[in-house]
Amino acid sequence: MIAWLEPQDPFPPLERALGAGTDAPGLLAASRDLTPQRLLLAYRQGIFPWYSEGQPVLWWSTDPRMVLVPQAFKISATFRKTLRRVLREPEWEIRVDDDFIAVMHACANTWREGQQGTWITPDIVAAYGGLHRQGLAHSVETWYRGERVGGLYGVAIGRMFYGESMFAHRTDASKIALAALCAFLGKHGVAMIDCQQETDHLASLGARPISRADFVAHVRGATQLPAIVPWDFDKSVLARWTQAAES
After folding, report:
1. Rounded to whole angstroms, how far apart are CA atoms 105 and 127?
2. Quick one: fold of 66-246?
3. Which residue windows are coiled coil (predicted)?
4. CB neighbour burial string for 231-242, b if at least 16 within 10 angstroms, e if fewer
């Protein structure tokens, strides 16, 4: 039985999350409230929300946990050519926080094979929008000829980044945003991006599973470090990162 949380209740110990032999491995608790304050408490402890419209807020702490080390992001020969074109051609832009809420809506509304509906509910948009206004959630956006064609968003606490969702309306547009994020975070000494759940797609990008204990130990230290200020980006950051990856 998972815990039901009232607004004032703390999260239970992570060890109480449902185990691998259950129908919902990693499920820890449920609640009605979803506030920026509750989200910050969750992320600092290695917990994240994931639920569908009509469900209570479901809180998870998976074991293992999928993470991406920025320097481990896989760049295929074909994608390397794409990045060179992005760096060379002014029609391509990479923007940070141009319109955070628009990126969330795009992630929610972009069709994905095998997926019906979205977990990015109006309450999720409102709560993460609150974090964004506090400077704790950010979007990285790929633009082509003045149109937003891809992007991602997530939460940044100290020197820890928690990836939430991506979208692409043009081939490789979300991967371009992820490459830009890896370059930016690597520049600022961020050693790990939380990818939450293990999937083949994330593995193909270089993500790998680690134990929950190792993940939480890293989070405890990384979230105590100074925040990245300001969040801004220019192509030179990606150019230097790409060159380093080639050497």
Report:
1. 13
2. Aminopeptidase (3.40.630)
3. none
4. eebebebbbebb
pLDDT digits (tens, 9 = 90+) for 186-239: 999 999 999 998 889 899 999 999 999 999 999 999 999 999 999 999 999 999
pTM of the model: 0.95
HSE-CB for 210 with a 13 A CA cutoff:
17
Counting other chains too, the contacts that 169-172 makes at CB distance below 8 Å and 24 or more residues apart are: 169/106, 169/110, 170/142, 170/144, 172/79, 172/82
The residue extents of the domains of the chain are 3-63, 66-246
Distance CA 118, CA 51 (A): 9
d(CA 245, CA 38): 38
